[in-house]
Design brief:
By secondary structure, the chain is of the alpha+beta class. Helices cover 16% and strands 27% of the residues. The protein has a domain of 203 residues. 30% of the residues are buried. Keywords: Signal.
Length: 342
């Protein structure tokens, strides 16, 4: 009887341990923090495309906005306030004069009068030479980011201009809702980057599209042997080659959880327009990373191991990113360094 009782106790213990183990796997690390009060983030409303941008995307031009004739021009007519000649003062250039013979000579700026004298007036008209230093020029590229699933190349999506409540960017099927970004290529830059991507119509306080350390990460480093991941969200600007930066991000502002970030991570192939990311670990190494979409959170992320990530956080889809250029313009290097979103 006692042996049977002990057998039941052991079976109960083993069953509960197994159940607890399954529960732990089921309720493993969370992609985003749970049970937190999210703070509202400021975002631009959807940005209207110009007709040139619409046509370049194969869209019909927007309907013209009719304006009242009264706003276009006033009726021509006489001035309401007459102007008399006594109210007008003309100042002529100052001249230098010298008398060539004896007698009285009078010289008035803009006027000349003489009595029995000859007056010679000379004006210095020598050209002025201005020395200028050549200014480095940059090209600002504006466009959208097109997403394609690695497993389904027929479907096309775009990075959404409206971020999630956690300050992370997801996707949209509507091109009119796509995030518009700008990167700047200067004379001294590598043609492939890395670049900072400025969000024109995205998050306002954190205007750059950067990578943010994940909530459940064990460190600031990505590796092929780790499930660590990075949110694609709003950040401030960091320099090319910089290690993970400490500072506020859209994720930290929304969740209250401070995480490091990098923004100058984007490489753009000038031939194919493919956009890839290059994270820099704390030791300066550059791991291979993969861009994924996490449907449970509606957000894009980067990871060094897709299979390890999905085993911890559930399903994810590997995607590729392309830059669809809409316009370019030349800007001075100083202007490129201080550009702000509209």
């Amino acid at each position: 009887m006692r042996a049977a009782y002990l057998t039941l106790v052991v079976a109960f213990f083993v069953t509960n341990v197994a159940a607890a183990s399954v529960a732990l796997r089921r309720h493993g690390p969370s992609f985003n923090p749970t049970n937190v009060h999210l703070r509202r983030l400021l975002q631009h409303p959807p940005h209207a495309l110009t007709n040139a941008q619409r046509v370049s995307r194969g869209l019909a031009p927007a309907r013209p906005i009719l304006r009242s004739d009264k706003r276009l021009a006033r009726r021509a007519g006489p001035s309401q306030t007459p102007t008399s000649s006594s109210d007008t003062t003309t100042v002529a250039p100052t001249t230098s004069s010298s008398s060539s013979s004896s007698g009285s000579s009078t010289t008035t700026p803009g006027l000349s009068s003489s009595s029995g004298t000859t007056t010679t007036t000379s004006t210095d008209t020598s050209p002025t030479t201005t020395s200028t230093t050549p200014t480095a020029t940059c090209t600002a590229h504006v466009g959208t980011l097109k997403l394609t699933s690695v497993d389904d190349t027929e479907s096309t999506f775009w990075v959404n201009s409206q971020a999630t409540p956690f300050g992370e960017y997801g996707y949209t099927t509507e091109q009119s809702e796509a995030l518009q970004v700008q990167y700047t290529l200067c004379d001294s830059d590598s043609s492939t980057g890395p670049f900072n991507l400025l969000a024109i119509n995205g998050l306002t306080t954190y205007p750059y599209v950067g990578a943010i350390i994940g909530f459940a990460d064990t460190s600031d480093n990505l590796a092929s042997s780790s499930y660590n991941y990075l949110y694609i969200g709003g950040t401030h600007k960091s320099d090319p080659g910089a290690l993970p930066q400490s500072g506020a991000t859209a994720f930290s502002a929304a969740s209250g959880t401070q995480k490091d970030y990098e923004s100058s991570i984007w490489l753009i192939d000038p031939t194919t327009s493919e956009v890839t990311a290059q994270w820099i670990n704390t030791d300066g190494s550059k791991p291979t990373v993969y861009l994924i979409y996490v449907p449970s959170s509606g957000a894009l992320a980067l990871t060094g191991n897709v299979n390890d990530f999905t085993s911890h956080f559930g399903g994810a889809t590997e995607v590729t990113l392309m830059f669809e250029e809409a316009s370019t313009s030349l800007v001075a290097a100083t202007a490129a360094a201080t550009v702000t979103p509209i």
